[in-house]
Amino acid sequence: MTESYIQNLFAERIGGKQYGKSTAIYKFAKIKAAKRAALAANPGAEIIDMGVGEPDAMAFPEVVAELHKEAQKPENRGYSDNGDAVLKEAAARYLDRVCGVRGINPETEVIHSIGSKAALSILPAVLINPGDYVLMTTPGYPVFGTHAKYYGGLVHNLALTEANRFLPDLDAVSADVLSKAKVLVINYPNNPTGASATPEFFAKVVEFARRNRIVVIHDAAYAALVFEGKPLSFLATPGAKEVGIELHSTSKSFNMTGWRCGFVAGNELLVKAYGDVKDNSDSGQFLAIQHAAGYCLDHPEITEKIAAKYSRRMDALVAALRGAGFSAIKPKGSFFLYVTAPKAAVKKDGTRVQFKTAEEISQWLITEKLISTVPWDDAGAYLRFSVTFVAKDQADENRVLAELGRRLGEVRFEF
Ligand SMILES: Cc1ncc(COP(=O)(O)O)c(C=O)c1O
User: Fold this and answer.
1) 194 CA distance to ligand 1 centroid (A)?
2) 221 alpha carbon to ligand 1 midpoint, in Å?
3) Distance 251 CA to ligand 1 centre (A)
4) For residue range 184-205, what is the model confidence (pLDDT) as tens digits?
5) Among the atoms of ligand 1, which is closest to the Cα of residue 53?
6) pLDDT tens across 363-405, in order?
7) Which end of the chain, N or C, is less surrounded by CB atoms within 10 Å?
8) Protein residues whose CB sits closer than 6 Å to any atom of ligand 1
């Protein structure tokens, strides 16, 4: 077959003429393929899927009712552009009541997003010129960095390690990188490590940003999913609004991943510039969805119920993994449990299987034990277990976790 001339037209940022020709298979595609193969080899068997990165449950009925009500209003039907006052005001109230962030001006310091992912893909256009550096944590959610590179920017990775409680070591960034760095992207509670920030760390980030004239983008996608105490907002740090913005989302906090709604808040200049680029990228989220999201922000007890479920599941998951020899420590928030990957598994008959990477054990767990996890080899070898696995009710939840423990208990892991 002759190749379409279109093949020669692709932009270099997505591979140019080579676009689509790479045979490399990415992590999540490998996981999917291994799950398909495991099911084909074990027809009817149950895969315990601990790899899911989104809530297992629906939005709460009262939120769906709110959407239904708002969707029937003719005035909500059209382009919403950068949104009306409803979500903005609810966001300012939410930041105040739930996160202790005082004095956010809903008119000038908040604009909605069609999810944090969309905001992270828009914001590089606001800040990145060719040659500018972005400081990103690794392992992490790569979207800002991907788009920064599209604009000719460079990503400098800051490793998240156990020794630093999965907080980046800002003092280790070289003067050369700092002189070209424009943005620091952080995310707490963190995906995938499950780590939480501290007020002291955030204070250090503000000081670091001021000293080096850097913008801070705090991706707070999991901020409200905490197992004890109140959510910790970067914006609650003295001086934070002078250096950055925070991205909130209803996706994880209110079981609304498919609804696509969040907000960007903080520094007025940055929010304005985000709005200007956003205006040239999308025409705003459906107002009925924005209004239902606003309803959620005024009902943080919904998130508390979701977090209580994750906390309960997390306790049982930690116990099951500890029983199998993993050194699992319950995180303070998010729905992720990040554990050191075993180096080997020894079967009852003495056969020993060795794993050089987290990806190897993750593949082995799917194939041999029908347990799906997400491997991370970016800063040490780790497995990410998510408590958003599917279970009908609490009894089923216990059954799934007991079964996980049983399957893992069939071998002895070496670390
Ligand atoms: C760290 C992080 N940021 C942002 C997102 C995207 O969230 P949203 O659904 O608001 O686009 C995710 C989703 O997995 C995430 O893990």
Assistant:
1) 13
2) 6
3) 8
4) 999 999 999 999 999 999 999 9
5) 14
6) 999 999 999 999 999 999 999 999 999 999 999 999 999 999 9
7) N
8) 53, 115-117, 141, 187, 191, 219, 221, 249, 251, 257, 262
- Per-residue pLDDT tens for 88-100? 999 999 999 999 9
- Each residue of 20-59: pLDDT tens digit? 998 888 899 999 999 999 999 999 999 999 998 899 999 9
Closest residue to atom 7 of ligand 1, CA basis: 116
| Contacts for 399 with CB less than 8 Å, ≥ 6 apart | 391
Q: Cα of 366 to ligand 1 centre, how many Å? A: 25
Instruction: Indicate which atom in ligand 1 lies nearest the CA of residue 249.
Output: 10
Neighbours of 82 (CB within 10 A): 17
Atom 6 (ligand 1) nearest CA? 117
31 close to 366: Cβ distance less than 8 angstroms: yes
Q: Tell the residue nearest (CA) to atom 14 of ligand 1.
A: 53
411 CA to middle of ligand 1, Å? 35
pLDDT at 202: 98
